[in-house]
Each structure stands twice: as structure tokens, then as C-alpha cells.
Amino acid sequence: MRKVFVVDSDEQVASILKLKLRRIGCDVVTFGNSADALMAIPDSMPEIIISEMILPGLDGIDFMKRVKMNPETARILFVFLSSSRDVEKKILALSLGAASVFAKPIFIDDFMEGIKELWSGYESKNRQDSAENTLQGDISDISVLNILNIMLENKSSGEIEFSSSADRKGVIFCEDGSIVRVEVEGGENNDGMEELYEILSWSDGDFSVNYKEVDVERNICIPQKKIMEKAAAWFKEYSEILQSLPPLDTVVYLDFSKFVDNLNLLPDDIDSVIRQIAETGSRLSEIIDSCGGDRKLTAAYLKQLFDLSVLSIENVQNEYETPENPDGTSSKESLEKPEMNLEEIEIVEENYIFADGGRKEAEESPKHPAEKPKRKKSGNFAKVLIFIAILVAVVIFVYRRGLI
């Protein structure tokens, strides 16, 4: 007799399905939520689960993930009979291993015929795949953290291989559900938590679980509960920073003038981020991948650069503009102008100015008039020297920081 679980919070639907399935020789157990069904699976081990997609607590999709991620229950035939109109969820359910998704309302006799066909085909496929002990999927459908939680719940042992969309590769080794080692291709792999944080940041790519006994040297020695707490906290903070940034496929540009203006507000080690931003712009995901190290810190630096308008999604002129003089010309332009005639030079001193702004000759000048132009010329020359000194200092500072 085939064992069947029916999981639906609608008692009327569950009762009708139970009656119809018993008539074709099935042993049927009904549940109003997925949590109770999960607890009953190890003892009863059904051959087929018919579940509503919308359930209280753990929804149908997450319920199925836990069934499919457990090597002992992965081959259970999983069918959705759902009132959900979310097409994307239905596609996701099929991609994660659901045998079929039937939409409510449906004629019960048509549904039963569909179940019989699925059962026949599934039994044939199950015999062919009985030697396999692997599970594959997409990280965008089930997060790295979710995979690790399910491995822990099922106390599973094996290797989980990850490949990011940027072609980065990593492996997590689990023993009885606990993480014992994490490796990233090209990484030092001394402190497994650092490699774990990097893999957690991969939002796109593939994963493959190979269930088997593992015998590797540990590079994570803290308790599993602590590992998951730290991983969850890191992932939460990282996700919050990413939410404040544009999408990771956005091309961003550096506004060099804003960068120079805000140098005193930026930490010294932000240079590693600046160097990854090409003159033609760079994608945020490429910047984070290229910097390596602590991705959460890199993302935080990118947020700071956006907050200061040093980074933008629009290309800007990356040449530092010199401040304008009161007459509207730049200081750079003023250096190239010919020297003014003496008649055009206005000598403004306290003793020469009336309240209404008029000019008046001093009755007794302490110095010879011929010395006045000389004093003004040397004053202008001093200002030019000061400006040049400031400009040279900025260039030397930027050069030493490796930005030019």
C-alpha cells in the first residue's frame, strides 16, 4: 500500500483527497501545516506528498526544499495542488524538483488521473537514478545559508560545491550537518570563516551536494551553533548594505574632483576599492569580486563613496577643476594672463577708503609713491607662489596614494 501525505490547511480539500486516494489503495495521512508533516516523515516515509503551496508557517516551497535536500527523502514524489496565482513560484517549484503543479480549482477525477501518470513515470525514473547520491540546484533559488541550515537539520554529511556567476569556486565540507572545512579556489583557506563569508556573498551560481562521509582537516573549530549565528549575522549586515546600493550589475563611475574634495573623510585602505574603478566605469559586482578580502567591508566602502557622491551611475568629468576667482576666471587661467598695467592696479588700504567706497589720497604718505606698485607686485607674486605650492602638495599626495 502506497503511503501518501496530504498537506493542506483547507480541511475540506484534505478530506476529499483522502477519500479519493483511499479508493485507489493508498494509505493517506493529512496535515494542516508543513511543520507537522516534516516531523512525521522520518517515521512514516511517504512515497508521495501532495501539498498546498500556501501554508501557515513554513510555506510549500520551503517545505519541499527541506524534503529534497535530505538524501533520505529526496526521492519522495512531491506534487503541488495550489490556489496560488504566482506563476514565478510555480516555475520555481518545478525547478526545485516538484513533479507537477496543479492549480485549484480542479476536477478531482482529472487530478487523480494526473497523479496515476506521474506515479508511473516517477517510479521508472527512480529505479534508474537509485545509484545517484547527489543534488544540484541554483543559488538564486535556494541561498547558501538556507542550504547549510537544511544540511544541519538533516544531520547530513558530504561536500557542497559552489560555483558563482563570476566563475569563483568553493567547497563546504559537512559532517553530520556541521561545517568542518571551507575552501575557496585561490584562497589561503586557513580561516574557514573568511572563506565561508565569501561564499555566503554569492547570490548567483550553481551548487551541487554530494552526500558521503568526509575526512578532511578542519579549518573551522568553533561550535556549529556559533558558526551559523556568525554566518547569519554577517549575511544580514551584508544584505542590508547591498540594499542601499544600486543593483550589483550597475556600472559606476568615479568623480575625481569629489574624491579629492572628500579625501579627509575617507579611510586610507579605501584605495584598494578606488583602484578597481576603471576610467570607463566598472560594475559593482566586479569591484567587489576584484577587491577580494572582506566583501562586507568593500560594500560598506562603496556605500560611503556613494553617500559622498564620489561614485555615481553617470559618467562625469574626472579632471579636478580649480576654484574660480571673483571675476569668474579660474585660478589656472589667471596664471596665464599677462601682467596688468600700473594704471589698472587699485591699491586698497585702510587710510584710502571712505564709508561710501570713494578714493582719497592720503595727506601724508609714509612711503614714496614710487614704492607702491613695487609692493603690489610682490604681493601678487607671493599669492601665485602660495597657490602653486598648494597645487603641488595635492598632486604629490594623490601620487603617493597610488591614484595617478
Topology record:
Blueprint: E1 2-7, H1 11-23, E2 26-31, H2 34-44, E3 48-51, H3 60-68, E4 77-82, H4 87-95, E5 100-103, H5 108-128, E6 134-138, H6 144-154, E7 158-164, E8 169-175, E9 178-184, H7 192-200, E10 205-211, H8 224-243, E11 251-254, H9 256-261, H10 271-274, E12 282-283, H11 284-291, H12 295-307, E13 311-312, H13 331-336, H14 371-400
Parallel strand pairs: 1-2, 1-3, 3-4, 4-5
Antiparallel strand pairs: 6-10, 7-8, 7-10, 8-9, 11-12, 11-13
- Name the CATH architecture of the largest domain: 3-Layer(aba) Sandwich
- Superfamily (CATH H level) name of the largest domain: Response regulator
Tally of helical segments: 14
**Mean pLDDT across residues:** 80
Quaternary state of this entry equals single chain
What structural category arises from helix and sheet content? alpha/beta
Give the total of beta strands: 13
CATH class category of the largest domain? Alpha Beta
Q: What strand order characterises the main sheet? A: 2-1-3-4-5
Please indicate the percent range of residues in DSSP E strands (runs of 2 or more): 15-25%
The succession of helices and strands, N to C, reads EHEHEHEHEHEHEEEHEHEHHEHHEHH
Q: Write down the Rg.
A: 35 Å
* CATH topology (level 3) name of the largest domain: Rossmann fold
Helical content class: 40-55%
Count of structural domains:
4
**Which outline best applies?**
elongated
